[in-house]
Amino acid sequence: MSSTEQGTSSAAPAEPTTAPESAAAPEVPESFYYVHGKDKVVHKVSAGALQHSALIHGMISNLGYTEEQAKANPFPFENIDGDILQMVVDWCNQHKGKPTPPEDTNLPKQKEKLFDLVLAVNYLEIKELLTYCCKQVAMMVKGKSPEEIREIWMIPTDAEDEAAEKEAKKRAGKEAAGETAAAAGDAK
Amino acid sequence: MTVSLLSLPSKDLQYSLSCMEIDELIALSLCSKRTKNLVKSSNRKIYQSFVNIDEECIGFDIMTGPFQKIVSLDIFDSYIELGGTDMKTFWIKEVFTQSDWIAHIMSIFNESIINFLTVEDVSMNYLDTVKQFIPKCQKLSIREECSRKFTKIAFLKLCYIAEEVKIDRNIFDDDDNDISKYLTLNLKSVSFVDWENPFKLELADLLALNITDLTIGPTNITEKDLNRFLKLWMKGICRFYRPERIYLSFRNDIIREEVIRRIKFEIVDDECLLTRADGKKLLIDIGLTHVALLPAQIMPIRLLSLPSDDLQYVIDSMDVSDLIALSLCSKRTKDLVENASIAINEIGAEVDENRINLNILTYKFHGHRSTKKTIKFVLREDCSIDYERDDGFQKWENTEFTLSHLIYHFLSLSNLPVIGISELPKLKIKSVNPITYLDTVKQEIPKCQILKISENCSDDVAKMAFFKLAPMAVEVVKVKRNIFDKENDISKLLSLNLRSVIFNDFENPIKVTLDDHLVVNIHDLAIQTADITERDLNRFLKLWVKGNHRFYRPKFIRLTLDEEFIIRREKVFKGIKYEEVNEDYDDGYQFRVDRGDGKELMIYIDDNHIVFKFKFGMP
After folding, report:
1. Is residue B156 situated within a structural domain?
2. H helix runs in A28-101, sequence order
3. Is the pLDDT of residue A21 over 70?
């Protein structure tokens, strides 16, 4: 579970309204870190939950932040949409200190977000979640015909690929010709 | 007073450009190539563009922003007339055609799409020209005043350049029901509206619909047809239904109960939500005079844009049937599947009555384990191809591929050794009915490596299959039963110029005479079980020694006689000069017979088994 607040990457986030939930009461006080996505909404996540992400785990180890420093400097992930980051944070919190079951029912169900989720999870290096997401992507075409797969996975036909390639070549040719003409004009 | 504009510092120059109106920028762009590039680099945007196509003059209106003034240009070959001013202004470029003018304007504003395109009644040939100089537009409308014939042709010619097509008259012939061919086009958004002439629409039209967003009004489709459509949708008939929105309006009130009669649904926000067994949903909004059908679509994702590791993981997570389907999507996906951990170990076809089953044996590797699966495609009597699935998923029907395309595809995916890329490794004739279906087989499978004619085939079918199909077998023809009658028509088959033939029937020995032996034209012939006398074998050898068959083609003849029969060497070699050789001399052959022209014949005899190997026997 996570809490979210409006803020900016530079501003320190306020205390979360609800306490983070953990599977077992920690004996030593748990440290927390802060992350935000494109929407600048800051998420408070425990160090245990963030261990799922090899990228963030590496950042924490390298920076050696204290909790105060971490609070003042949330990790910025400007390339990840806020709602996607929220899903990732939720998942990390739910699986804090637990192995991921092969069929994880607690994982995001929104198919329309799947592509962005895969990109985000790949970037954050969360191996278990990535595995599950890729399986979900594979499941999208279970039992489908090539025509259906083309639509579901937006795969261009050979003719479309060839046309796009031709178009790209044409455009590159035109741009090159334009540049040559401009250079010649400048020379005059 | 003149100013050397181009000598201004670049910031000032850009500022000057930003102060200019759109029409002034167009005029500047026409001065020289440099000024054209300058205008282009100013990145000025057009808010909306409207093009009206008339053969004599193309109207090009440019809106610079919401509630901003419109710049109207009348484009002719070699000049543009600028409208909206008190004085008539012309810009002339002798070498420019209408097409060049449009390309120029689009280019300087870095635009690739016209927002609104309207077509007047122009000549049919001119429509092709339109397509060339306006490759893309957002909305296309064809004037109501145009004839039905013209509107139909203009629609078909231009619909693919538009994201949205709007036709404000009923152009369809109700008797021919020609609306259906327009509805099956793969288009994004089409609107047919003519309140004076309702559109005739039937259940079949809705089922075949391929337009993503369709509006038709008014239509006279019945509630009963709509109800049947919904029932068929629930049954999964339109399994992958492309439309995302169908909006039908009516002149008369709709009886809601009739439309949703005996259909299970739930009410969501006053609309009916149908949920099918496979989880697909369809939302229906039924008003007094309209019905809107909104099939919920799977949100597509751009698979090929995934990072390569993730893409590979997705591929690895797929099962063989889905990988096969993916490989057929495009060349790029085929390459992806080629690198996946699957192997195609066998490809074969079986002719069963008037169908051809194409079977592909595949293995998918999971670390050290592998799973085996046979993929089956069926070419049906109506020449359509189905992919029959054994994993509980509905089969694909009427796939877009031909059998030869599939054979080529799977051969190139496999690592099977093939001489020709479209050579099917195995073709089995299980049964054929009618016998003329053999011609279809020959057409669909032009070459194979091994042809097997099954024991289930009737004699006539087997013989005909042999005559028609044996020449296309590159390696071997196997006939699994004695198909010859007492007339001893075996000689007709033996005289065919073939590479390798095996006749196999242990219960009914195949009668072979000396004459049959002499006409053999098969490179490698094996008969199990052969009914031939030692005397005939002896006479054959004598004739061979005399050189009667100088250009005898066979290289091997292998005969297996009845298992109770023991071939007596002395009877076979009676009166023939032969030499016993060491078994190491030539692959275990025991005897050698030489002839005057230097050719030699190696012979192996073992109980009921005799093999002739003709050395240098090939012409």
Report:
1. no
2. 47-50, 54-63, 67-72, 82-94
3. no
Compare all CA atoms of chain A with the CA of B112 and give the residue at the minimum distance. A171
Chain B interface test: which of A110, A145, A158 (most B C-beta within 10 Å): A145
pLDDT band at B606 (very low <50, low <70, confident <90, very high): confident
Same domain for B412 and B494, yes or no, is: no
Q: Provide residues of A within 8 Å CB-CB of chain B.
A: 111-112, 114-115, 118-119, 122, 130-131, 133-135, 137-158, 161, 178, 181-182, 185-186
pLDDT in tens, A66-113: 777 777 788 888 888 888 888 888 888 888 777 666 555 555 555 567
Give the CB-side neighbour count of residue B54, counting CA atoms within 13 A.
12
Which pTM was predicted?
0.57
Chain B neighbors of A131, CB-CB under 8 A: 313
What's the Cα-to-Cα distance from B229 to each of A142, B107, B235, B273, rounded to whole Å?
Answer: 26, 47, 10, 15
Least Cα separation, residue A103 to chain B (angstroms) = 13
Residue B328 to chain A, least CA–CA distance (Å): 6
Q: Which of B134, B121, B135, B131 is nearest to B157 (CA)?
A: B131
Q: Which residues of chain B have a CB within 8 Å of the CB of A178?
A: 37
- Whether residues B354 and B282 share a domain: the answer is no
SS (H, E, C) B72-91: EEEECCCEEEECCCCCCEEE
Domain assignment present for B165: no
Yes or no, beta carbons of B301 and A152 under 8 Å apart:
yes
Q: Is B337 in the same domain as B451?
A: yes
Tokens of B321: 């049937």
pLDDT in tens, B554-597: 889 999 998 888 888 888 888 888 888 876 666 778 888 888 88
Determine the residue among B303, B332, B375 to mutate to test chain A binding: the one whose Cβ has the most chain A Cβ atoms within 10 Å: B303
| Residue that wins the pLDDT comparison between B514 and A66 | B514
B355 and B473 housed in the same domain: yes
pLDDT at B155 over 90: yes
CB contact under 8 A, A146 and B329: yes
Whether residue B549 sits in one domain with residue B471: no
Assess whether B464 and B508 both reside in one domain.
no
pLDDT tops 60 at residue B401? yes
Point out the domain boundary residue: B440, B455, B481: B481
In this prediction, residue B214 has a pLDDT band, given cuts at 50, 70 and 90, of very high
- Asked if the Cβ–Cβ distance from A146 to B304 is below 8 Å, we say no
Chain B interface test: which of A55, A114, A121, A134 (most B C-beta within 10 Å): A134
Please name the residue of chain A whose CA is at the shortest distance from the CA of residue B329. Answer: A146
pLDDT for B302: 85
Looking at the fold, whether B236 and B327 belong to one and the same domain comes out as no
Is B304's CB within 8 Å of A143's CB?
Answer: no
Task: Label residue B177 by pLDDT band (50, 70, 90).
Answer: low
- In whole angstroms, how far apart are CA B197 and each of B25, B172, B182? 47, 10, 17
Q: Report yes or no on B24 lying in a domain.
A: no
Domains held by chain B: number: 3
Cross-chain Cβ contact A143/B391 below 8 Å: yes
Say if B47 falls within a structural domain.
no
Q: Is there a contact between B518 and B495 (Cβ–Cβ < 8 Å)?
A: no
Q: How far apart are CA B234 and CA B282, in angstroms?
A: 9
CB B452 within 8 A of CB B488: no
Give the closest-approach CA distance of B557 to chain A in angstroms.
48
What mean pLDDT do residues B131-145 have? 89
Distance set, CA B14 to CA B1, B65, B136, B306 (Å): 21, 20, 30, 40
How confident is the model over B67-92, as a mean pLDDT?
83
Please answer whether residues B390 and A137 qualify as being in contact, where contact means their C-beta atoms are separated by less than 8 angstroms: no
**Same domain membership, residue B247 and residue B380:** no
Task: Note down the domain range covering B516.
Answer: 486-619
DSSP state for residue B289 in the 8-state scheme: S
What is chain B's mean pLDDT, rounded? 85
